[in-house]
Design goal:
The protein is mostly helical and 89 residues long. It has one domain.
Amino acid sequence: MKDYIEERAVEIANYIIETKATVRQTAKKFGISKSTVHKDVAERLLYINPNLAAETRKVLDVNKSERHIRGGMATREKYLHKLHPPEES
């Protein structure tokens, strides 16, 4: 595996752990696809640093368990803005 890929995988994992970021947020921050984030933390990181991989997995599992709540809140916001559009100055 190329060195820069290993470095990126570790950097991504540290970012996810420190900020409790979702896969989408992480992909946007690093300018890569969600698939690449998944591959880095779920597969590559296991070979590079298994302990870091386990910590990252815990954060991602929490995010996954809460995603339906975030989706509901986003939908709620969407419809609140449709009912009460922001007033122009």
